[in-house]
Amino acid sequence: MLHAVLTGIPLTLGVTAAALIIGTLVSLPLLACTLSGNRLLWLGARMVIDLLRGVPIVVWLFIFYYGVTLGSAKLSAFGAAVLGLGLVSGAYLAEIFRGAVSSVSAGQFEAGRALGMTSRGLWADIIAPQAWRVALPGYTTYGIGLLKDSSIASTIGVAEMVFQAGNFARTTGNGIVVFLLAAAVYILVSVPVGILSRRVDERMSAVVAR
Amino acid sequence: MVRVRDLSKAFGGNPVLEGVDLTVLEGTVTALIGPSGAGKSTLLRCMNLLERPDAGEIEIGSHRIDARSRFSKRQLYALRRETGMVFQHFNLFPHMSVMRNVVLPQQRILGRSKAEAEHRAQELLARMGLADKGGQYPNKCSGGQQQRIAIARALALEPRVMLFDEPTSALDPEVGAEVLEVMKELAAEGMTMIVVTHEMGFARNVCEDLVVMADGGIIEQGDPQRIMGDPSHPRTRSFLHAVLQR
Amino acid sequence: MTFFADAQEFLPALLGGLRVSLLLTLLSLLFGLPLATVLAFGIRSHNPVLHWLSVAFVEVGRGAPALVVLQFMYFGLPTAGLTLSAMASATLALTWTTGAYCAEYLRGGLSGVPQGEIEGAEALGMTWGDTLRYIVIPQGWRIALPSLMGFAVILFQTTSLAYTVTVPELMSQAYSIGSSTFKYLTVFVLAGILYAMISIPATWLSVLVEKRLNKHL
Predict the structure, then answer these.
(1) Which of A155, A173, A180 is opposite residue C164, by nearest beta carbon?
(2) pLDDT (tens digit, 9 = 90+) per residue, A94-149?
(3) Which of A55, B55, C19, C180 could tie C192 with a disulfide, CB 3.0–4.6 Å?
(4) Chain A CB within 8 Å of residue C154 CB
(5) Cβ of A115 and B153 within 8 Å?
(6) Quick one: which H or E segment has residue B58?
(7) CB distance A151–C65 less than 8 Å?
């Protein structure tokens, strides 16, 4: 039984990590558009973010898995799961990052500009490092949430932890312990990540008391 | 030389500056005073284009920008490079050590090597009486120290003119005095300075030129001693009366 | 266009599913919010048994994916001799999730009530029960309201996972139409639109409420 759950762990972690990477990459252009000051770009990004967040993840996965064909090829279950979870993550992360950027005071932008920094230098050296520090707790919390949401990949047949647990329950008719075991693994993985992030946050804010 | 011609700026339909003309000679110290809402800070922020004026011309050294015509990013940076600015709330970068606050802009904007930039930073910090503060983070420093670090950061870029936007308003009087002392030394060395201030003592004793603003325009300009002794404009009179009462 | 013709054909069944999704959301909130209130006070309790029991209930409810809780109730409990209908097990699972998440929001709301106001009420001679009833709980609710509304939207979206335990909600209707007509894309896009048509305005509403409340606080 333990074996069934454990064999699912690599895919659970794999889906989570791949979706987090895609989500981070997707969030950046969305963030840039919402901060650009261009009304059209802002509106476009807003619509994409609201739509991605407004539709349940499982619907996105089904659309990508059953609905999207590239020529005659279909997306693999893993591909569809990572793409769907990644896009939705991009929308949520863009909002987390936007909040963090708006927490950096206007004076920081002004000081950088008054020193003659280019906007690229200003973002790279001044704004991003400060915003990242503010965003980190939210980013980790989202990552833990994503770990749990990766279980939805089981609905399109990705053989991660919940898929394995379900299989075990169906074939043996013994479902109570196996699901408890799966739940325990999620909790066991998320607790240390949460503690670690709080530790890092405390250490960083100890250096730079804001 | 710094010259501003016919400068206008409005925020959301409210005119803040209306056709302002101002000339500041090389090596002089000019004080901008006047009631709040007069447009002093906006005028200062237009000079380095932190605010983009609606109309008018700004000329610093050999660089000139006409607000009505298009200008390139390159022209904008070239003009800004001639100026250094000091803010009311210091605006140091909280995620960098004091040393790095002064070093990084030199590397990025002047392309100085790290060693060269550190050498210059150490020199400036020592002059500000902060030789031992390089390794600290800004928020561990007092307000007066932070403002002197901000001055060092601006000076490190070798500006032609320094713009001060109420540099002591956020400080206790005795701490503000440390900052004013540093500014006085700078003035004595011949730095061109434009200072928005409420420190009448500094305006009278250190500045060569006094500019009184009200309602988005300059109402009086000239020798500080003369204007403070015998203001000709009624608004100047009532403003000075109110300030000197305190 | 075939999309609209198909849409017209599928819509009645999908709307029937949506009704079940909304019902499941409502039931989970109906049972989950009182549970959350009890848990919020349980966590603040000085009784160690009550405290740790509440903490465990909340941490498991938040730490385990909703999908796992759902499957546990439907496929797991029968092993222990307790067989519930699909709708009952889904309601039970989402009630747990709701109780766990909302307990945290309520706890945040309760500790957001300024200590001075509680002391003020006590100084007026109000009993602890009255202080709780007239000062702490109404304000705590108000502070927590935007997060609770945000959670309600998430909960509504989470009901889409109840199709895995055969609740005939929107996603389940879409899936059965898809597998009989093979028009997967059309039917899932339609389902997505229906979910979005409720989630997006509801999110806007919660943002609006948050802004309104911030103005008064």
Answers:
(1) A155
(2) 999 999 999 999 999 999 999 999 989 999 999 999 999 999 989 999 999 999 99
(3) A55
(4) no
(5) yes
(6) strand B55-60
(7) yes
Structure tokens at B106: 């030199």
CA–CA gap between residue C100 and residue C33 (Å, rounded): 9
- Domains of chain B and CATH, by start: 2-82+161-245 (3.40.50.300), 93-158 (no CATH)
What distance in Å separates the CA atoms of residue C12 and residue C18, rounded to the nearest whole number? Answer: 10
Return d(Cα C168, Cα C14) in angstroms, integer: 10
Of A50, A152, A182, the CB nearest to C200: A50
Q: Calculate the dihedral angle through the C-alpha atoms of C58, C60, C65, C66, rounding to the nearest 10 degrees.
A: -60
Return the CATH architecture of domain A2-207. Answer: Orthogonal Bundle (1.10)
CB-CB under 8 Å, C203 with A187: no
Q: What is the pTM of this model?
A: 0.87
Domain range annotation of chain A: 2-207
Query: What does the pLDDT look like over C33-67, one tens digit per residue?
Result: 999 999 988 988 899 999 999 999 998 899 999 99
Instruction: Report how many domains make up chain C.
Output: 1
Pairing of strands B2-11, B55-60: antiparallel
Domain that holds residue C128: 2-216
Which amino acid is located at A114 in the chain? A
Q: Which residue of chain C is at minimal alpha-carbon distance from A188?
A: C63
Task: Write out pLDDT tens, residues A50-62.
Answer: 999 999 999 999 9
The amino acid occupying position A128 is A
Q: Contacts of residue A148 in chain C, CB cutoff 8 Å?
A: 63-66
